Amino acid sequence: MSGKLITHLRAHRTKAGMTQADLAAAAGVSRKTINTIENGVFTPSTYLALTLAEELECSVHDLFELPDDPN
Amino acid sequence: MSANPVSRARLLGSAAIVIATATAFIAAWLSIGPSGLIWAYIIGGTAIGYAIVSIILHLRYPDAATAAWDEQNTQAHRNSLIFGYWAVLAVFLIFLTLSLTDRMDPAMAFYWLGPVLGVAPSAHYLTSVMRGRAE
Question: CA of B67, closest CA in chain A: separation in Å?
Answer without folding.
Answer: 4
